[in-house]
Specification:
elongated, about 35% helix, 15 helices, 7-stranded mixed sheet, alpha+beta
Length: about 475
């Protein structure tokens, strides 16, 4: 039995839409989703610093909307999220245009052209707060914004003004806020280059940012001369899962290293990458199935889901978080374990190659690690390494004391400080193909010592060539005669 109609306050409701947790990058990406769903082949993002009168605009050449369609698009909750969507539809809740826009600005204007008719509508939060009514305005602050439509058969412009969440009431002369505004827009550009990289790579859509083409940022580094290892795509329920193992950082350039790490660095970019209709939703997250570890930094896994799986994956309104269904988590965890092991093999065992070029866990390294009785990890010089064993065999007790002194004073804090400040200090170190004269001389000297001890020639070679760093240079073997 009906009782009352509980109509929400326009003022209270529209202000609550401002708190859905968007940041500027995810908000703009949400607007671009609408342009893609509307069939756009070119999307232009522009912005201008004018202090508190700054603005951001997004113009596309999509299908455009009639007046009725525009009013519906500007109406909160205009689409039923349970309705079936066409496969390339990036929307779901019918809320993105409004919630994304209001999260960043107080004035949203939408101008659209269809069938040679240009229509405009505006939400002004200040006006709604004053009237407490859901009243759309038929206005635009500057007629110059309509000029691009003269060359478009159809399309839509989204205009954000009163950017209170970004620039506030800053005056145009405020250089601090101006620099922060520009820095935030650079972050947006990088975000879009990754989120929509598949559209850019396929040349389906051109994204222009301040009239410059946005390049694709593929998180799997498929463009590198040193290609990543790609696993066989595996169907897991309705998701397609493919793992990629990136090449070691030392095999790429500094520029590629910085771009591949992204804003947060290599450590944070490991994990799953969830795509929905080719649009990246989640980047670099183990989804609670694994922990982020240093030796897993080279493992990245693509998951492609159709938009029919939105509810099973708990897709949020911002389309920036998703949770895998319980019934496929075991398979995802299995694939993740495979990728992590492969990453660890490259990351931890770099340099542990046997004489025939294959990986060997029994390579004699210069350093080993072990836990003491208190559970503290200690690093020890490997007494079995040929070069170390040779000097220990001399019986000089000062050598033993010197090795112990080195072990007790490993500069762990300094190493960690440098690693945290910039991991590339260590990770970009190249491995040269030709050994130095000093290294060759040391190998020959060890070989001479082994020969004097009566060790057979093949065994002497094997012991030297199966220890670091001699194992990296097969050429050294030619000198052991």
């Amino acid at each position: 039995m009906k009782a009352e109609t509980a109509r929400p306050s326009a003022r209270a409701t529209i202000n609550s839409y401002r708190s859905f947790g968007y940041n500027l990058s995810t908000a703009i990406a949400d607007i671009l989703d609408n342009s893609i769903s509307a069939g756009a082949t070119e999307i232009s993002i522009n912005y201008k610093w004018k202090g508190k009168e700054s603005y951001i605009s997004i113009l596309d050449n999509g299908n455009g909307m009639s007046t009725q369609e525009l009013v519906q698009a500007m109406t909160p909750g205009s689409k039923d999220p349970e309705h079936e969507r066409v496969p390339n539809d990036l929307g779901r809740f019918g809320m993105g245009l409004k919630t994304a826009s209001f999260s960043q600005c107080k004035q949203l204007t939408c101008v659209t052209k269809k069938d040679n008719l240009i229509t405009k509508r505006c939400w002004d939060i200040d006006f709604i707060n004053q009237e407490d009514e859901w009243i759309l305005l038929d206005r635009i602050t500057d007629e110059d914004f309509l000029i691009p439509f003269e060359k478009l058969n159809s399309g839509t412009l989204i205009l954000w003004e009163k950017l209170d969440r970004i620039v506030g009431e800053a005056e145009m002369t405020n250089e601090y806020v101006k620099d922060a505004f520009y820095a935030e827009m650079r972050i947006v550009r990088d975000h879009l280059s990754m989120v929509f990289h598949r559209f850019i790579e396929s040349k389906k859509i051109k994204f222009l940012f301040q009239n410059e083409l946005v390049p694709p940022l593929n998180p799997f580094l498929l463009h590198l001369s040193t290609k990543p290892e790609m696993g066989i795509p595996e169907q897991v329920n309705r998701a397609m899962v493919t793992y990629f193992i990136l090449p070691h950082m030392s095999l790429i350039s500094r520029t590629e290293y910085d771009m591949s790490g992204g804003p947060l660095g290599w450590h944070h970019n490991q994990g799953f990458y969830i795509y929905r209709a080719d649009r990246l939703l989640v980047a670099g997250d183990w989804l609670g199935l694994q922990k982020k570890r240093e030796y897993a930094k080279l493992a990245r896994i693509a998951i492609d889901i159709p938009n029919s799986e939105d509810f099973d994956w708990n897709l949020d309104i911002k389309k920036s978080t998703a949770t895998p269904p319980i019934h496929i988590r075991k398979d995802l965890q299995r694939i993740a374990s495979i990728a992590i092991k492969k990453s660890a093999k490259i990351y931890n065992w770099r340099g542990q190659k046997s004489f025939d070029g294959s990986f060997d866990e029994h390579i004699e390294t210069l350093w080993t690690d072990e836990k003491n009785r208190e559970g503290v990890m200690k690093y020890r010089i490997n007494r079995k390494h040929p070069a170390v064993k040779a000097i220990l065999d001399t019986g000089n007790k000062m050598i033993v004391k010197a090795l112990k002194l080195l072990e007790d004073n490993v500069p762990i804090q300094l190493i960690l400080q440098n690693q945290n400040e910039d991991p590339s200090f260590h990770e970009l170190e190249k491995q040269y193909e030709t050994p130095s004269d000093e290294l060759i001389g040391l190998a020959v000297e060890l070989y001479t010592i082994y020969a004097a001890q009566g060790i057979p020639e093949p065994l002497a070679r094997q012991q030297i060539m199966s220890s670091t760093p001699f194992n990296l240079f097969p050429l050294i073997n030619d000198y052991l005669k």
